[in-house]
Automatic annotation (TrEMBL):
Subunit structure: Part of the 50S ribosomal subunit; part of the 5S rRNA/L5/L18/L25 subcomplex. Contacts the 5S and 23S rRNAs.
GO biological process: translation
Keywords tagged on the record: Ribonucleoprotein, Ribosomal protein, RNA-binding, rRNA-binding
Function comment: This is one of the proteins that bind and probably mediate the attachment of the 5S RNA into the large ribosomal subunit, where it forms part of the central protuberance.
Naturally occurring in which organism (per UniProt): Aeromonas dhakensis
A GO term from the CC aspect: cytosolic large ribosomal subunit
Protein's recorded name: Large ribosomal subunit protein uL18
Amino acid sequence: MQELGATRLVVHRTPRHIYAQVIAANGSEVLASASTVEKAISEALKYTGNADAATAVGKAIAERAIAKGVQNVSFDRSGFKYHGRIAALAAAARDAGLQF
């Protein structure tokens, strides 16, 4: 994915948290990030390791990326199956305005 030279939305998940970063095309700069570790996101949730949490992170990362002027990204799921929390994050980011 990095070899293609595209701005990418990278997702990482653990059993308790989910993380998302928008990385510049050159791969050396993080343009936006969001995760369930952040107080603003985790306080609004009962649990941080489920699809509802992934939806909140997807919405937050899309809003932050658009604020930085990034509309189009490539979705890098980091080897995780496109299912469950990963799919929920992607759907929320698309609904909030990111295109991929």
